[in-house]
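Issue: copy button drops trailing tokens. Both records pasted manually instead:
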Amino acid sequence: MPDMLVATSYEEDFSVECLLQELLMALVGYTGDVFVDTSSGGLNDELLEPDRCTVQLATDLNWVSPQDREALDDLVRLGFHYRQLQRFVQQEQQPCSRLSRSLYRQALCAGLAEVLAVYEDEVVLLQEQLLQQGAGRGLPGLKYQLAELQMLLPQLHQLAYDLRRRRLPVSEGGAAPAAAAAAAAPAEEGLQVPREARGAKLLCTLHSHRLNGQPLLQACLQRLLWHVNQVLFNQLTMWMVHGLLADEGNEFFIRPRDATRDSSSSSSKQEQQQDDTRPAGDSNSARQSATGAASSSKHVPNRSENETYKDWHEAFEVALHELPPGVTPHLATSVEFVGRAVRLLRAPPASAKLKQLQQSCSSFGRSARGSGTGVADDQQQLLQQQWAALEQPQQQLLPHEDTLAFAQALRMLQQQPVFSQAALERTVEAIRADVASRLWQLLVVQAGLMQHLGAVKDYLLLARGDFYQCFLADAAKLLAGPPREKTANSDLAVPWQSAAMKSTAQDDPHFKLFRLVLRPKPADHAADAPAAAAAAAAPAAAGAAAPASSGAKPLTVPSFDSNWDGMALEAQLPWPLGVLITPSHMKRYNALFQLLLRLKRVQLSLEQTWQELGRLCGRGGGGTSASDITPLLQLRQHMGHLVGNLQIYLQLDVVESNYARLQEKVAAAQDFEEAERAHDRFLQALVAQSFLGSGILGKQLSEVFGQSAALCRLVKGAREDGIDWPQVQELHAAFNTTMGSLYVNLQSKTLQQYDKAPYLRQLHLRLDFNGYIKRQNKRFLDVQRTVTTSYRQQRQQQEQEEREQGRRAKAQQGRQQGQQAAV
């Protein structure tokens, strides 16, 4: 037959049909003497390049024509590609002692195995046809039936070769096993542990190969993507429904914070770090250092509040370099929020109410057994029902029906043949909205967020003025001297409690949440806010130890009294308010507290100075007239004007106005994240409008506070030693200089940034509502300008006289030298 194998003398022993049978066996990887494989064929051998085919027709079959030999070699390439793909799948499924298992690559191997199974079925079908019909169809029939596979298998072989060829350094992987392997072999410098493309990199590689103009190859790669995306959706389901990280190979874009640390650390150190992040009592946790999987919060229902807050604030983060295609940073942040919220809602800490009910049930049972008379069965059943209802609070916080709905929505996405980014974003947003709404209900309605924020305003922002008026009056003698290092906190507690009994704080149930303490003296008083606030933001302050943003601008609080400037408030807020009010927030609240408290102390000191001046004038018994101490009265008035208006500005224009906006925002919000953003903006506005980030204004206010304290000391000693008028004049000049610089800076274009300009103008308007200070400052500047001009003129005249004297001396010296030469 034309275009077919030409039989020679070997036809009797070796027919064309036998040759085709050998070809079919070679197509599924079984070579022999007819089709020879020149490679070793070991399982552990490296994958060969798709262009380096090692399977071909034996050269001693010289009775095969060159055309048929070329056609047979072209067909048998499929067997070479099949064998290499099969080797890739088998090698990936082998356990590796140096690398953690990649779930994504296992899913890819499952998809490749599915393709190879289709290929094997096609070869079996060809063999059945060959047995039934004989070699009548010949090579053209085989080539026609295998044409699609001839286009597909080389591309899949190229994909597997690209995946295996890509090797990454240890530092880019970040997995604990790779780090342990690098630490176990320190002598091998520059060790390159094979880190093939996995996780997001694997998905990106599949996406890049899918971008081609061959529909069959696109459909095949889309099926492989579907297999790999099954792992991604399983991880999303575990995280967003159950709050678990099912991530053996550290491939998910949500990771424990310990997993992203330096990979050069030893495996034992990483295990200890993960134990610190893991909630206490989680002995059966599935989250291990080698896998990085998170433990199930439902296994630890008795976590403490601190452990819950730590799990919320610092246990997990988004690995932006591991985002798969179709997952934006915003979507990843939403997924991370949902998982943290589910962990929080499914495993709340054991509350004091639950413990109290447990003790009541125990004592109830003991009294019933001790009395011997028995108790009413209905009362006993009622207590048992209440205990059973409170023993599993997660059922109330996150109903089982919601978790089933979450799982069903993700399951529908998982079953779709094509990944849809828009559908995933809609589903995640719906789950996020539901979880955020339940968190908002928990914080705002059940935990009383606004009531506690009102208490924070009352005590940390000094809105309860009568209480602080009583406290500073009762603590005046204590604050007048240096603190005792060992008993400072106890000494402060006495006037603190005494002031509560004399003011409206006595009936305030939130007063017991706050405790006044004295923190260690900072090294630099002008910049003491970060140190004092950091000390005040102990884990008990908000129940957690959330890390503050490293790029936050340090706050500058003006200093007043180096002995007592370290006073700060600690707050024991009930669960779960620490989710919203973090320790970083408490740092800023304490910086504001220190500013307002110091301002209040300066104001009260100036008021006491006014009383002392009144007694000096004879109102309280004395012989000095008001005209004699007019400079002192004017200086105190100017200081009181500045301090009083600054306090009104901070309490009314800053605290009260922004708190009113916060109340509106939280009341209008039905979402935890909206309430969180409203609180963050509220605190940012307080810090910005108080100018705590401005070192220039902080330094000048520190000078004003110091000058006010100096005036108070001067007036206090005037009754015994008389008025030191030179010191008064020096203090007056220094205060005028500071005030002039302060008002100039309030109008400075450098400080008036887009977010601070309105508040600087508002403060300036309060301080200089009638333009008096502007005129005084202008006169002061004119005087300074005149002094500077006269000094410059005097200096120029002096320099001119010195030059003239130099010229005269030089001329006289020349004349003397001429006379000596003439002699």
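Record 2 (pasted manually too):
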Amino acid sequence: MPEAPLTLPVLIRTIRSARTQAEERELVQRESAKIRGAFRGDEADTRASNLAKLLYIHILGYPAHFGQMESLKLMASHRFHEKRIGYLGAALLLDEKQDTHLLLTNSIKNDLLHPTAWVQGLALSTLGSLGSVAMFRDLAGEVEQLARVGQPSVRRKAVVCAVHVVRKVPDLIDVFTRLGEQLLTEQNTGILHGAVMLISEMCEQSPQALDRFCKFVPQLVGLLRNLVVAGYSPEHSISGISNPFLQVQILRLLRILGKDNEDASDAMNDSLAQVATNTETTRNVGNAILYETVLTIMGIRSTSGLRVLAINILGRFLLNKDRNIRYVALTSLQKLLQEENSAVQRHRATVLECLADPDPTVKRRALQLSLALVSGSNVRTTTKELLVFLETCAPELKSDCASGIFLAAEKFAPSKRWHIDTILQVLTMAGSYVRDDAVPNLIHLIGGAKELHGYAVQQLYKALTQDISQQPLVQVATWCIGEYGNLLLDGSCEEVEPTQADPEEMVSMLERVLQSHLSLPGTRAYALTALMKLGTRLQGSDINRIRSLVSIYCSCHDVELQQRAVEYNALFRKYDHLRASVLEKMPLVDKSGYTEEGSEKEQNGREAADAPRILEVAPAPSDVQQQDSGQVSDLLDLLGGPADPPPAQPSTGTPAVESFLDFLGDLKAPASAIARMVAYEQDGLLVEFSMDRPPLEPTLLLITATVSNRTPHDVAGFCLQVAVPKSFQVELLAPSGSTVPGQGGPPITQLIRVLNPKKLPLRMRLRLAYTLPSGALVQQIKEINSFPEAAWK
């Protein structure tokens, strides 16, 4: 005897009582087989109960596609409870991708014309959620008719359905325009709420509808004013505020109508001020209305006083105990900073207090806004607060905070000493989290402040004796000791009380850096060079100690350190008479702004641009030329060149320079430059490709990707990935950094090597990922098929 089918309550209890997933799966498969058999036997009496069980199985995640036709059959039933199950099944099992979806139109149309309001409501709800473009075009007239006349519940659902129709098929706006005008006089708040939603959607989709409904601004303002002054209504009031949902919708519609419209904005200014001053803020409902009021005030052409009032409302939100409200206020203030900087600056102290909030999201948003509020007038006080925050903040915030302080100090520093002190404090507290360009920028800053050389090297040496774990700080300190160590030895400093350093202690400190397991290879290279430069200012046993330290690294596993140590060791052994001149102080390098033309010159013609500088510096007398040629010969010997003296050159004015440039020309053939192209431009980021093809390797294409930021805020977490067809080979080298500095900062670069053995047209797919200043993670895929022929032919 076959087992009787289970009812829906029994099926739910049985599945819930299953002890294992396998047992549950077995129960579902057995019951699904029974339901499928019943559907195949066309048992009309049990169709509704079987479909209800199948929908429960579908909700659990098991396949239930075989119930689609049964849903259509139940929708056509004359019994309301079966029709309701059929519509529920259609809503769960059907979508626009299903062919069965096309069969819904007739059933829904018949039910829209049904005399019963309950059936009309089912049809309208299903049409709004499942309707396709073709279905909306066929049934728009019926929806519009039901929205005009009928029971209030049906009209309300018809108006909401009309919103979905307009959103999906903007061509049908003309069908509902007169309906929107008529419904604005409705007394039923549910229908009026739907009418405001419908008008908002039409105005967003059509400029003609926007112009048409602008004349209804006084009527909408009157509705809003009545809601604000209305008394308590048990049906529509929430927390003592009359119909807040309708107020929010009207405010949104006013924002749409008043954008870039002076007359409409003037008509609503007084009412917006009334809402902003009379709305109760003790409950979350009032805060929601006030926030929408702020968005409306800032979105239209409102008066300056009203805009200041809106900023002050957001300032009051910052004092709210609810963290969600504080987060919303911080986000809104950051968006309004460009337009109303002076008004937002008044709340700077409150924003800085939000840095102590225990919620990490509020803390991050407060940090972003605090950094954006830094200006020339408040840079000292704001930076002081940010440094206090940097010392105690979570590790995930240290990088953003340090980068922001760097940019603020570079832009608004009142003096070079304050600038250096601020950067040193950041390196001391969060050296491991700073940007990649922090070390060269600080070195350039110190090098350009000649009067502060003694002060900087004193402070850095003091910081180095206390902590060598912060690698950027150690790198800057060792560089300064190498360049300005004589100031430490002499104890000359005008800014603070000078302290004379012991030479043996300085060498010991650099030796400690070299031997520390915390030191990176780059840090050891800085320390090794500092030892060599310091050796030109020391004598006796200290020189021998430096020589022994250098010789240790002649067998180092790191190739860079080994090469550097071997060269330095050769200076000691063979060319001790050249050591002082080779290890002189570094000249100050010009730090020019990075522009498109300048970057092209820098990348494509760096060797050619350096030659004139050599020609300008090189003197012309013959005895100096002979001395220079002898030094060049010694240097070539040091690099492993021939020991014999070079043959005599014709006297053309600069023989040493010409022979040296000829030597460089033998090492590297000039590359053929290709026009630069824009690969990606969005969210303020600009990715440009500059391409070169080495003449000695015609199948190789070198692409330098330059990523610059045109927004004032840094873009963090930038990652570029590249894919090419199988006929190509691609190699992506490490980028110069992962944070793209704000406008005016140096871009990041990344080298891409593409091998094209068959010389086919180049196609490339880019995958870019980065985090916007707002915290949103962006992932984009871009395909490039427009490479110039010179890049692959």
